[in-house]
Specification:
The complex is a heterodimer of chains A (130) and B (291).
Chain A lengths: L2 H15 L5 E3 L4 E9 L7 H9 L1 H7 L4 E7 L11 E6 L4 E6 L5 H11 L2 E3 L9
Parallel strand pairs in A: 2-3
Antiparallel strand pairs in A: 1-6, 2-4, 4-5
Chain B lengths: L15 H7 L6 H6 L17 H20 L11 H11 L9 E9 L8 E5 L9 E4 L3 H10 L4 E3 L1 H9 L8 E4 L1 H15 L17 H8 L2 E5 L4 E8 L4 H20 L8 E9 L5 E2 L4
Parallel strand pairs in B: 3-4, 3-5
Antiparallel strand pairs in B: 1-7, 1-8, 2-6, 8-9
Helix pairs in contact in B: 6-7
Classes of the chains: A alpha+beta (130), B alpha/beta (291).
GO biological process, one term (chain B): translation
InterPro entries (chain B): Ribosomal_uL1, Ribosomal_uL1-like, Ribosomal_uL1/biogenesis, Ribosomal_uL1_3-a/b-sand, Ribosomal_uL1_CS
Protein name (chain B): Ribosomal protein
């Protein structure tokens, strides 16, 4: 595969081929989201990391003003408990919704996030394709 | 006698015959000349060595191609994008990364004749990325005290500072250095080989040596130095949290400084700007129109 095709695919993954996060989040209600999870995968923290890598670039691309904060905690000790949550922040910066992401796949986390947050799916013709 | 079927390799219990036959065993030229005509041997293909003239022609072709590329319009490149859309992709690619790693940088290829001195200069950004760290070398203690009071200097000192840098006790983490003429000979003799390649050695030609350090620093404090390396210039021009307008203003400032350094270049034929890409720490490289 040529370098250019590979690069185009990379751009299209952000703007076109990843369907689930192609939504417009109601900007009048929400300021941003905050995710807290471990750097390490153990204790069911893989889902949020995959959510960050797979879905958040597209969510940010279609919602440029949505503030996305990620707090990753180093924790080598498996006995220690680190929060694994997604917080939805309103305009004043207060948490309005909290989603527990522990032991869950990125797809199910995204479904619950979209259920809890007011949004509009972007029609196919408005999507950006490179 | 050496033949290509003399040793049977063991290949993890796979279909050995097929694998074995398809693998050719090439003899070295010396070995081939020693063997008899009965055995099946494959002669080693000689390595193609280009003559001096061929090498010259190859280099010329490469140079002409890069020159033709430089004349090409930015929109001819398949990954061309206008700056706001490029920034939108870069911001998306950088989501959730630590703030220190979200730098947007600009890389431009320089096409110049052989032997042309590399481009260098200073850019004064309307929105700087960070405060530039300044080091001042002088034997005049009073002058240094005065400068320390007026400006937030990273390092300031005389012979003891030079000795510290030479021993490795003091890190070279400053972006700019200024000096007074009384210390410059010691500085060049002791640290010329250390600071020179990093581009932070005070030099009369560069205009970083003066008795009047106050005005010199006030003129140069808000600027960012750049230098051509490996036929390209790479500059950090912003962070992803900068607005589009701020980044575009910084790009315009960078273009102005680079073009100025081209016009002041001491060469028969001036260098040309070729493909310019906008990229970020974790993002893709996108071609933008820089001319």
């Amino acid at each position: 595969m040529s370098k250019i095709i590979r690069q185009k695919n990379f751009l299209n993954v952000i703007s076109y081929t990843t369907k689930k996060p192609q939504v417009l989040i109601d900007a009048s209600k929400y300021q941003g989201i905050r995710l807290t999870f471990q750097v390490e995968n153990h204790s069911g923290h893989m889902g949020p990391r995959m959510l960050w890598r797979k879905y958040l670039p597209t969510l940010q691309f279609y919602n440029p003003n949505l503030k996305i904060d990620i707090i990753r905690v180093y924790n080598k000790n498996k006995a220690k408990n680190v929060p694994c949550i997604l917080e939805v922040l309103d305009k004043t910066g207060n948490t309005v919704e909290t989603i527990d992401m522990k032991n869950r796949m990125y797809d199910t986390i995204m479904d619950e996030f979209l259920n809890k947050v007011e949004h509009k799916v972007i029609p196919e013709e408005e999507l950006i394709h490179v | 006698m050496i033949s290509s079927f003399s040793v049977r390799p063991v290949l993890h219990g796979l279909k050995q015959t097929q694998r074995y036959i398809s693998t050719s065993y090439t003899l070295l030229a010396e070995e081939a000349s020693e063997s008899n005509g009965d055995s099946i041997v494959t002669l080693a293909t000689p390595v193609k060595v280009l003559t001096k003239e061929q090498l010259k022609k190859k280099e010329l072709r490469k140079f002409l191609k890069s020159k033709a590329d430089a004349r090409k319009s930015a929109s001819d490149y398949p990954l061309y994008m206008d700056i706001p859309s490029a920034l939108r992709y870069l911001r998306a690619a950088e989501v959730g990364q630590p703030f220190s790693q979200r730098t947007v940088s600009l890389t431009t290829i320089i096409v110049g004749e052989k032997g042309v001195p590399p481009l260098y200069g200073n850019i004064s950004f309307p929105t700087p990325l960070r405060k530039s760290k300044v080091a001042v070398f002088s034997n005049d203690v009073e002058k240094l005290e005065e400068l320390k009071k007026k400006y937030d200097l990273h390092l300031a000192g005389g012979v003891e500072l030079i000795a510290g840098i030479k021993d490795g006790n003091i890190k070279i983490d400053f972006d700019k250095a200024f000096a007074t003429p009384d210390i410059i000979s010691t500085l060049t003799a002791q640290l010329g080989r250390v600071l020179g390649p990093k581009g932070v050695l005070p030099n009369v030609k560069k205009g970083t040596v003066s008795d009047d350090l106050l005005t010199l620093i006030s003129e140069n404090l808000g600027t960012m130095p750049f230098r051509e390396r490996n036929k390209s210039i790479s500059i950090g021009i912003g962070k992803t949290n900068f607005s589009d307008e701020q980044i575009i203003q910084n790009i315009i400032a960078a273009r102005k400084a680079i073009k100025e350094s081209i016009t002041t270049q001491k060469a028969k034929k001036q260098s040309m700007l070729s493909k310019t890409t906008l990229t970020s720490s974790h993002g893709p490289g996108l071609v933008i129109d820089f001319n």
